[in-house]
Model the fold of this input.
Amino acid sequence: MRITRLIPFLFLFFPMIKSDAQQKKYLIHTVAFYNFENLFDTINDLKTNDEEWTPTGMQRWTFQKYQKKLENLARVLSEIGSAENPDAPTFIGGCEIENRGVLEDLIKQPKLIGKDYGIIHFDSPDKRGIDVALLYQKKQFQPTNYTSIPLYVYKNNTKTAAILKTESEEKTDDVMQISTQNYRIYTRDQLLVTGFLDGEEINVIVNHWPSRSGGEKKSSPFREAAGALNKKIIDSLQRIKPNAKVITLGDLNDGPYNKSVKVALGAKAKKAEVLPLGIYNPFEEMAKNGMGTLAHRDAWDIFDQIMVSQSLLVADYSSFRYWKAGIYNKSFLIQTSGQYKGYPLRHSATEVGFSDHFPVYIYLIKEKR
Done:
């Protein structure tokens, strides 16, 4: 049986709807994204560089710590968007995931098992073994097609490759690995999932763009390439169906104002600026207002973003439309002491935290007939 949540009297929250909306009711679905920050199991995979996330590795990553990490993540995922939608997210995009097994362990946690999440995951060429994935409530969404689309980016000489490996303008665990044979930078694929939500076709793209390892400016071309690939995927969907409903989400390792998002992808900050076939980014205004999903050197930025196609902005709620977006930054997710007081509460030598990112979410709504 499909279970949906209703929003009675949505006019209280959504002024653009006419006054007679108090008689209307709406279906609502939450779409979330969370960087799980090093969701590794405790087993050494000889094909990836995961040695530090083992019981004998630098992190002393024991079974007990792993179980606590799963418990923490499940708590967050079960509560994202709960202010307006008491149900857990219908869609959860995630990144920094070692393998399918950790996702299977995650969805079996007590706070999530009742939601009956399905998993869509592919192993990526990233040498740390971290991937992207999509979790979805099976009773709400029926996938019909999914594919992993590789991002090919290269460094063209040994000197610049060495710079990327040694320069450290920004602290990150996500160091880019470069092939010594063809100088390909091994990074995450982009995951495209298509399926039906309450009878309507929805396309979701899950991203984790190349890191800032080596410095923001030197590494920017790789994220610009990721933005261009994302745009190419969206364009291909819209060539087949001009009104295709597309949601692209992920940790972009860039803010909403960077070239990868503003130029390569072409995302707009205001709904009025979004032309047909265009992309709207609700997180750009949040960034301008000083909000953030992660902090570096006491400066906040929004690397975690969810964007939607213009087809989800039309003011006709007979089918699913974008409603609003948010950053889930509840107090239990925040470091309360020490050098990183006020930052997201991540894993440390003394505490199994949540993540060094806050999760983000949007709502899709449709008038209930």
